[in-house]
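no rush on this but wanted to send it before i forget. theres a chain ive been looking at and ive put its sequence and its fold in token form underneath. i want to understand how the tokens follow from the sequence so walk me through it. thanks a lot i owe you, the record is right below:
>
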Amino acid sequence: MTDLVGHPILAAVSDIRSVLKGVAGVNPTFMSTSDKAAALRELVAAEAQLVELRLRVLADAGDLADATGAKDTAGWLAHQTRTRFSDARADMGLATVLDRERPVLAAGMREGAVTLAQAHVIRRALDTLPAAVDADTVDRAEAHLVGCAGEFGPKELGRIGRRVLDVIAPEVAEAAEAARLADLETAAADRTRMTMRRQGDGITRISALVPDAVATRLATYLEAFTNPRAQRGENAQTSDPFTRLPYPRRMGEAFARLLETVDPSRLPVHGGDATTVVVTIPLDSLRAELATADLIGAGLVPGDNLTGDRITASQARRLACTAKILPAVLDGTSLPVDLGRAKRLFTPAQRKALLIRDRACRAEGCDIPGTWCDAHHLDPWHTGGPTDLANAVLMCPHHHHRVHDTGYRTDRLANGDLRFHRRT
């Protein structure tokens, strides 16, 4: 250990390390329970004091970066002490706040009454107070939260911090909270995202950022599926294999069950019909033990295309019995039965049949999914063309407009696609 001399802080650090070295070989096995409890409490308090001292030095160490050419003090600290840069950056931010704005919080750490984790929570709670709250109210909030640190952990402190104005300034709390929530809701709406990507191993990764209220509703719905079944005796829960699964696995299973229970008739109309996922399977395959079926949906999940939307025949049989998914059994030519009707607009049943047959826009080279397409009469209805499958193809909005553009003509290819040519 390096002998530290000179500045009182260096001398204190040297003394602390020397004392710790003196007990480095002491085994706590023979300590009494009360001694262990006292030691743990005091060690946590001492650690908070040491952290405060470290942050106090860190806040005034800007010259280190200048002297060594480091980008900033956090970068120097991470490199020199072999710590994570993210931790060093967070500590640097807290050190600056303690030094310039939060003397009560700094004093709480200096006395060993506030841990590092609690300090980060208190700092965030104070930083999220609305800008309209005056400095005196912020100071009172700081004192209140530091006082609560002696009784509550970081999680509870976070909850108290969110409602601290209700305690110290109830006369402005409601208006301030409304303004804060309005800002949060606006920011949450701007940041809302959802992405899906196939992994190539039969799994699709779903990632989302949603507002807190949306996440709460989703968690509530999923927990309706993850809750243990009705208790029948003290061993009822452990006898159910589902309840023994890890919680993240149970939530994933619950998400799948939630989708299976969604009533498509209550969803927005999509592609000219009620939103529906269609399972297509030949009759022989449906009867077989080992076979596959196709799942027709949006078709725009990026990633590996080797797995796609194929499922086993047994899964198709299950979905046909339990889920709001339409099973379509195909004949020997892999075509659904013509469901045409003597009317201008294609019926929902015809729309489903077209989706099964065409899958995507039938313009040559276009891969827009069929659920986004319109049903188009090849022989126009107003000139006597029938509204049936033989006279229909799916066209995306772009090509549906193009097919009615007098500046273009179309040829029907052998595979049923339409090839466009500009008229000369």
About this structure: The CA atoms of residues 137 and 169 lie 7 Å apart. The chain is about 50% helix and 10% strand. The longest strand covers residues 193-198.
